[in-house]
Amino acid sequence: MIIVMTTTETREDAEKIASFLLENKMAACVQIFPVTSKYWWKGNLNISEEFLCLIKTKEELYEEIEQSIKEIHPYETPEITAVPVLKGSKEYLAWLDEVMK
């Protein structure tokens, strides 16, 4: 299992990505959080209010998820990163596996 992360400018964009991934069984759960992001973009330091999506999924679905986010996401270069789930309760991990394709 992995957690894929992406940020969006609006809650609507975050909801759109979450709904698409869930409806297509690419994610078991997507959590959406408001965050303040400070970052460099095209030589300028920026501060933005964004929405962080934490996408719980299987590693083998990463490429499909990345492509889907790129197609839906309005950013020129969206954040799409993944981290492995190193440990978790066996019941929770079994549920994740059960609800995805």
Walk me through this protein's architecture:
- A hairpin with a 2-residue loop joins strand 2 (29-41) and strand 3 (44-57).
- The protein has helices at 11-23, 62-72, 90-99; strands spanning 2-8, 29-41, 44-57, 81-84.
- A four-stranded antiparallel β-sheet has the order 2-3-1-4, covered by helices on one side.
- It has a single domain (2-99), classed as Alpha-Beta Plaits.
- With 101 residues, the chain is an alpha+beta fold.
- The mean pLDDT is 97.
Topology (SSEs and partners):
Blueprint (H helix, E strand, L loop, with lengths): L1 E7 L2 H13 L5 E13 L2 E14 L4 H11 L8 E4 L5 H10 L2
Antiparallel strand pairs: 1-3, 1-4, 2-3
Helix pairs in contact: 1-2
- What's the gyration radius in Å? 14 Å
Helix segment count? 3
Helix content: 25-40%
Shape: globular
Distance between the termini: 13 Å
Which parts are unreliable, with pLDDT below 50 for 5 consecutive residues or more?
Answer: none
Relative strand content: 35-45%
CATH fold-level assignment? Alpha-Beta Plaits
Q: What is the number of domains?
A: 1
Number of strands: 4
SSE pattern: EHEEHEH
Output the CATH class name.
Alpha Beta
* Architecture (CATH level 2) name: 2-Layer Sandwich
Q: Helix/strand-derived class?
A: alpha+beta
